[in-house]
Write a structure and sequence with these properties.
Number of strands: 2
Shape: globular
Oligomer: single chain
Distance between the termini: 32 Å
CATH topology: Rossmann fold
CATH class: Alpha Beta
Largest sheet: 2 strands, parallel
Strand content: under 5%
Number of helices: 5
Number of domains: 1
Helix content: 40-55%
Structural class: mainly alpha
CATH superfamily: Response regulator
Length: about 140
């Protein structure tokens, strides 16, 4: 929602894994709310990601725009609340681009949680990123 926990984590994990696989793709993240526009990711997200070799420090929160639906071929949402918010901003021609990051499951929000919640998000994002990268590699 605010683009400081799940989405910047997913952005960087996907970027790193795509680069390692030799896939040239552009990744970005955005929130559906403007709570943290211009802010860096949550310090806990930065800390836990850094432990796994991901650097979130250059990322800054932003809110999704109508241009995003034109720029991107695929828009991944962390949960149903966010995908519903994005459906309200997308034109009918772009609704097919929206899907949940984890497929049919929601990515839990660690914001009000503990360290293990941030680790769980990383576990889930890394696992899904590996599947997506393999899929994208085989389609090229």
């Amino acid at each position: 929602m605010g683009n400081i926990c799940r989405s910047p984590t997913a952005e960087e994990v996907l970027r790193v894994k795509a680069r390692a696989a030799g896939i040239g793709m552009h990744f970005d993240s955005a929130g559906t709310e403007g709570y943290h526009v211009g802010d860096p990711p949550d310090p806990r997200s930065i800390k836990h990601a850094r432990r796994r070799g991901y650097d979130l420090t250059a990322l800054r929160a932003r809110r999704i725009t109508s241009e995003d639906f034109l720029r991107f071929d695929l828009i991944l949402a962390a949960d149903r609340r966010n995908i519903d918010a994005m459906r309200g901003k997308a034109t009918r021609d772009h609704l097919h681009k929206l899907t949940l990051l984890l497929g049919t499951e929601e990515l839990p929000d660690p914001y009000y949680g503990e360290a293990e919640d941030f680790e769980r998000v990383l576990d889930l994002v890394e696992k899904r990123a590996d599947l997506l990268i393999r899929s994208w590699s085989s389609s090229n």
